Amino acid sequence: MNRVLVIGSGGREHAIALSLSKSPLLKNLYCAPGNPGTSEIAENVNLGVSDFESIANFVIDKEIDLIVVGPENPLVDGLRDFLEDRGLLHNRIFVGPGKEGAKLEGSKEFAKDFMTRWSIPTARFKTFRRGESAEAIEFLKKLSPPYVLKADGLAAGKGVVIPEDFDSAVKELNEMLGGKFGKAGERVVIEEYLHGIELSVFILTDGKDYLLLPNAKDYKRIGEGDTGLNTGGMGAVSPVPFADELYMKRVEERIIIPTLAGLEKEGIEYHGFIFFGLMNCKGDPYVIEYNVRMGDPETEAVLPRIKSDLLSHFVAMGNGLLSKEKIEISDSFSLALVAVSGGYPADYKRGIPIKIESEITSLIFHSGTEMRDNTLVTSGGRVIVVSSSGEDINTASKKAYEDIKRVSFDGMYYRNDLGKDLLKYLNNNE
Hints:
Layout: E1 2-8, H1 11-21, E2 26-33, E3 43-44, H2 52-61, E4 66-69, H3 73-76, H4 79-85, E5 93-95, H5 103-106, H6 108-117, E6 125-129, H7 133-141, E7 148-151, E8 160-161, H8 166-177, E9 187-191, E10 197-205, E11 210-212, E12 217-218, E13 221-223, E14 227-230, E15 235-238, H9 245-265, E16 272-281, E17 284-291, H10 298-302, H11 310-318, E18 333-340, E19 355-356, E20 363-366, E21 369-372, E22 375-378, E23 382-390, H12 393-404, E24 407-408, H13 420-428
Parallel strand pairs: 1-2, 1-4, 2-3, 4-5
Antiparallel strand pairs: 6-9, 7-8, 7-9, 10-11, 10-16, 12-15, 13-14, 15-18, 16-17, 18-23, 19-24, 20-23, 21-22
């Protein structure tokens, strides 16, 4: 029986905790710090995700067997290495890479260079540092609009901007190199824009073998029709219709297998999730970015479709036995819809009371909530995720949009067009 600690406080961690709570292998489930949603299925522990010392002490005190890290920052900052150096992973399983492996997400420059070394298809690119604005502008001149500019480091999912014209690109570039994203923007990767449809592919790996999880598509822009500012994610759908068996075979052969081979050959030990942010360009997959954890809100659409025991998969991963595991995935379609605070992703108010009606039949995941004086209130930009399943896109969508009307708080906003682009794709390809 396993004592499990989930680290994080968002909708992703709520979804992970819910999946783990169903396992017959589970003994105790803790979330650090968790949220009001996780408190219903686990014991919340008041520990910060960056408080490595306190996490280590908790792991010892509660005799934790397995640790799952939801957000990227503790991984990039080396939580695994911290625990390893103290001998705490000798007989414990940790779902997530060490500092070296986490560079795949922590540094866009490292990731792009890695892809180049191992012939993994990606967009043409070049990296520039502060003081190299003139050289960067010259590189921009060689590309056609729109332009892709990425802060090298972590920027809470908002470090990628796509200016539509040259003048805007130059302005944005100067702002980024001038400190717009702080330390994360000390280096900027400029990429050729890839035309196509994005999708997210996820694996759980023990460094050699892997389980292919359900794929998904997320919606990053605040406005309908993918307009307006980038956000941490306004919703996600799973599966993606064009990601059929043939396409996914290409993804595995051209991207997943070479990535794992590259990590092994470079001596980078890797246990945990890899999230491949891909672009489908006329049937060919290209890597936009790597992430070293599950996505949010994709997790809230993906995990409800996994019928097999997630904890069993984690245990197998920790013991190097993933080759013996079989993942079972539902044929249903899943849609996760995010309700956000008014003003998000710019300034927004916190502490606004939230009402959730009991008639909701969809899954509800807490993303940015807290309890104040026995009242559920908003505590972040992304507040509540409504995750619905159905036999097709229409059924799941109808259910999600019906149920989100049973959630309310002042200033609440959500997109009304999730999945419509996929319906259009299906109709055009019938």
